[in-house]
């Protein structure tokens, strides 16, 4: 490329950036009037405190305690963000007016890097609604229930492997990296649910995709430096072609993510083409997620490229999220031996009653303690601590609790202008004492055993918990994740006893895009 073309490109990027940046810096609406944490530097704002905490949620919890459920938080380049955990405001942003508030450019960029132009990336409105409608049947109650034998089969492989390890240790307890095993288990399960055998539990070293996934999030997202935080924010101001150039830059992180995406897309393409040829030959394609999608493709307007992106998106969204949640669940049970024993007793009772070790969805649903432990873990350890939305138009967001502004005025709603960035803290909402009671910061499944459990907020897909998001863009795979976790939990608890690792090892909630145990 000649020097003049390169300078022209750089100039063009700078002009595009400056135009978008100046537009976004206008001080508008009520957000500037809100109280909030003292801003850090103009360049970095409060972002390092939020994104490089000792443990995920430290800043969310302490700011919410101090400034309430809506406040102003300074982002990079002196930009004001609205930080929200107020239930009424969240209902408005996510449920009532879901399509007015799109996922932020930085979140869409991350989604595109890890899954291409999938549902996670799709823009609000028609594009998203159409894709979601096509995919929804694959995640209905009945479709998901049909995957139970897949979850059980993968669970048994893990159990056999762990038993072997224990017997090689003379039947004595062994220390296992449970999180890494769970990541393999959930990867194999989502693969099998798409009719693809990854064999990562069996240590299939030939499988490139399983290798690419190993520690993908912690390697590429943990402990982001200032440069990366700034870059993720700049993404919001750059045009698509400039983003494309940056994505293809030669740094190690971009290369790692690019290589992983190429492998994932290659696998998805191969699988879809083979399903399409089965279908063309008039053969039954089966009941797996991919077959359902490919069949939908026949009747609806969806391109093969779009299908590939959806599969890639499901592979990534559908395994590490569930594995990390399960890891936190087993961690909590390892510190609560009485509860672990009670659950083991309930499972044994249910197996006896059914006359089989293999439980059914109805059996899971009739174990209140199992349900309570799952819900409490989802509440306490939301694997995606926050999401970011951008207001698509001038708007007025209602509040359930009035907010006192920095100059003493009382606001019952917050006016925002088009383009306002809104940080939605799932972590803070899930710990509000006004909803969950004074012990909100304690892991206590009993709260879900009482009938009048908690204040109803109309948020989330299950028991007012917002961990799977809420509204049109909530997690499409929540039933899949719940059933998989119930199946894994019953299998593992009825076969093993979990204890914390010896030697007082500290396990922290690390900020690696997802909240990973580290
Ligand atoms: C414990 C496990 C899981 C958790 C906590 C979780 C959480 C979430 C959250 C919070 C969102 C919405 C983010 C936002 O509002 O910006 C989301 C979206 C999504 N999730 Fe999950 N997820 C889990 C498992 C799964 C599984 C198993 C699948 C697929 C098999 C899946 C597929 C998706 C997809 C495709 C989206 C995008 C939905 C859309 O934009 O319409 N997730 N997930």
Automatic annotation (TrEMBL):
Q: Which protein family is it in?
A: Belongs to the cytochrome P450 family.
Q: Where does heme bind?
A: 475
Q: Which UniProt keywords apply?
A: Heme, Iron, Metal-binding, Monooxygenase, Oxidoreductase
Pathway field of the UniProt record reads:
Secondary metabolite biosynthesis
Q: A GO molecular-function term, please?
A: monooxygenase activity
Q: Is Iron among the key words of this record? A: yes
Full protein name: Cytochrome P450
- Please verify whether the record's keywords include Oxidoreductase: yes
Q: Which SUPFAM superfamilies match?
A: Cytochrome P450
- Return the Pfam families for the record: p450
Per its UniProt record, the required cofactor names are:
heme
Transmembrane region positions?
Answer: none
Top-rank taxon, per record: Eukaryota
């Amino acid at each position: 490329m000649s020097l003049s073309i390169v300078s022209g490109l750089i100039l063009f990027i700078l002009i595009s950036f400056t135009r978008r940046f100046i537009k976004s810096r206008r001080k508008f609406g009520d957000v500037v009037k809100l109280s909030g944490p003292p801003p850090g530097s103009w360049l970095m704002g409060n972002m390092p405190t939020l994104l490089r905490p000792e443990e995920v949620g430290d800043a969310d919890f302490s700011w919410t305690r101090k400034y309430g459920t809506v406040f102003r938080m300074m982002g990079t380049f002196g930009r004001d963000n609205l930080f929200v955990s107020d239930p009424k405001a969240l209902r408005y942003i996510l449920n009532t007016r879901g399509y007015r508030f799109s996922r932020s450019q930085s979140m869409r960029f991350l989604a595109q890097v890890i899954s291409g132009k999938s549902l996670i990336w799709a823009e609000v409105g028609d594009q998203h609604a159409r894709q979601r409608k096509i995919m929804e049947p694959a995640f209905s109650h009945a479709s998901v229930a049909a995957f139970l034998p897949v979850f059980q089969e993968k669970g048994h492989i893990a159990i056999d492997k762990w038993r072997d390890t224990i017997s090689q240790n003379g039947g004595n307890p062994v220390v296992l990296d449970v999180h890494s095993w769970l990541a393999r288990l959930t990867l194999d399960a989502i693969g099998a649910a798409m009719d693809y055998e990854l064999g990562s539990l069996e240590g299939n070293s030939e499988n490139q995709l399983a290798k690419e996934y190993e520690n993908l999030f912690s390697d590429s997202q943990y402990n982001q430096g200032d440069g990366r935080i700034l870059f993720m924010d700049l993404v919001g101001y750059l045009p698509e072609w400039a983003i494309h150039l940056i994505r293809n830059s030669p740094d190690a992180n971009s290369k790692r993510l690019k290589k992983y995406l190429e492998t994932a897309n290659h696998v998805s393409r191969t699988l879809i083409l083979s399903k399409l040829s089965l279908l063309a030959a008039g053969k039954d394609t089966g009941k797996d997620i991919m077959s359902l999608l490919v069949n939908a493709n026949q009747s609806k307007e969806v391109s093969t490229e779009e299908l590939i992106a959806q599969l890639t998106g499901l592979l990534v969204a559908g395994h590490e999220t569930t594995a990390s949640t399960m890891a936190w669940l087993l961690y909590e049970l390892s510190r609560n031996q009485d509860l672990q024993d009670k659950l083991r007793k309930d499972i044994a009772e249910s197996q006896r009653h059914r006359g089989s070790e293999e439980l059914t969805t109805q059996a899971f649903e009739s174990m209140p303690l199992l349900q309570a432990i799952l819900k409490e873990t989802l509440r306490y350890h939301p694997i995606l601590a926050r999401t970011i939305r951008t207001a698509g138009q001038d708007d007025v967001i209602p509040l359930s609790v009035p907010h006192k502004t920095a100059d003493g005025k009382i606001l019952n709603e917050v006016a925002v202008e088009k383009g306002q960035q809104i940080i939605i803290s799932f972590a803070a909402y899930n710990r509000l004492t006004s909803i969950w009671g004074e012990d909100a910061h304690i892991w206590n499944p009993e709260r879900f055993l009482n009938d009048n459990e908690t204040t109803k907020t109309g948020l989330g897909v299950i028991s007012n918990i917002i961990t799977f998001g809420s509204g049109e863009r909530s997690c499409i795979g929540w039933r899949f994740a719940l059933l998989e976790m119930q199946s894994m939990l019953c299998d593992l608890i009825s076969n093993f006893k979990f204890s914390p690792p010896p030697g007082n090892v500290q396990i922290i909630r690390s900020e690696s895009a997802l909240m990973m145990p580290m």
